[in-house]
Amino acid sequence: IATTDTLEKNLTEWELLALNSELNVSDGHPRQSLSAAQTRIIADLPEIFAQCGREHPADIEREAVRRYMSLVKQSSYPADRVLLCYASSVAMEILARALVLETNRCALLHPTFDNIPDLLRGNGMEVVPVGEEVYETGILPDEVLRNVGCVFLTTPNNPTGRVLPELQLADIAAQCREADVVLALDTCFRSFDTRAQYDHYRVLEESGCRWVMIEDTGKIWPMHELKVGMLLHSANVGLNLAKIHSDILLAVSPVIMRMVDRLAEDAASGGISDLHAHIAHNRSIVHQELAGVPGLSFPYSDNLISVEVVDLGERSAEEVWEELRAQNVFLLPCEAFYWDAPEEGAHQLRISLARDSERIRWAMQSLAQVLSR
Ligand SMILES: N=C(N)NC[C@@H](O)CC(=O)C(=O)O
User: Fold this and answer.
1) Which atom of ligand 1 is nearest to the CA of 12?
2) What is the Å distance from ligand 1's center to 27 Cα?
3) 158-205 residue pLDDT tens
4) What pLDDT, on a 0 to 100 scale, did the predictor assign at position 312?
5) C-alpha span between 56 and 257 (Å, rounded)
6) How many helices (H) and strands (E) does the chain have?
7) Residue 189 C-alpha to ligand 1 middle, in angstroms?
8) CA–centroid distance, residue 188 to ligand 1 (Å)
């Protein structure tokens, strides 16, 4: 029985319930222990803080962005068209505020994390769904393309992990160019999947379409929300993004930017492959611990991002969530990812894999025990 506090929750409100709990495998923010190299970087924060008093912020920002983009192999990013934000959701809010001055309808990938449609709708936009099949076909439905001012795609997608391949990006960008529609990409999870690391900016710039890209360090490193969102755009985007950005902030902290620089440097010299191995190991723990439970399935098996979805078959995800909550274990019900057809997620729970492995094991042992009742 859904208690009053579980009705009509957005995903982040579900995640808030888990935030101060013993076993939070709900939100996709990294909470695993630091590596030795990351511990050294944190120990250097006093020196990093002192450097920020001696160096120009622009130099620190430029170097950190360069290092991050090098890590995710984006060599053609426009270094002079980067707006830094406190979070990728701030970048999304800026985009939504700019878009609504030119169009009142946006096409958005379905399913995806619900703060995206909520931010668009909160700015007065109507949001129409586009299925993940466009990641295979590279073809946007004409009835969609002719009736929106923006197409917004998440790649890798959350929670499915589906990646928009290079050829399909090129085809979609060409369609957006021809229809004079802004193409926006949210790539928050791209560091987990090398299939999402072809040079997107070269493809976008070559297409000539009006494009906006959102990058995010918040899903990569366990920095207690010390992170940066990046909003990049084409020269011809024709949206007053910089002006709206200036309404919202002057600058992100150079301390965070220098920290990101150091973390990206370590990641490029082995840290990111260690992270991939850790996530893969945690995914295998999920599959091992649930192997004996009848009626379950993992619908997104080729997913490489730091989450895993389990389909409970006939079982209600919210009822199982409640039983787990009684044991202080928190997963994430998936209904709200399916923002245009919630029933499609009514039997799915998402597990965040960016945790220490024993926590994943405990949480899955609790889930197996609840499901075998
Ligand atoms: N602004 C919001 N609502 N942030 C939450 C978001 O970062 C969590 C997320 O993306 C995930 O759990 O997969």
Assistant:
1) 3
2) 7
3) 999 999 999 999 999 999 999 999 999 999 999 999 999 999 999 999
4) 98
5) 12
6) 15, 12
7) 11
8) 10
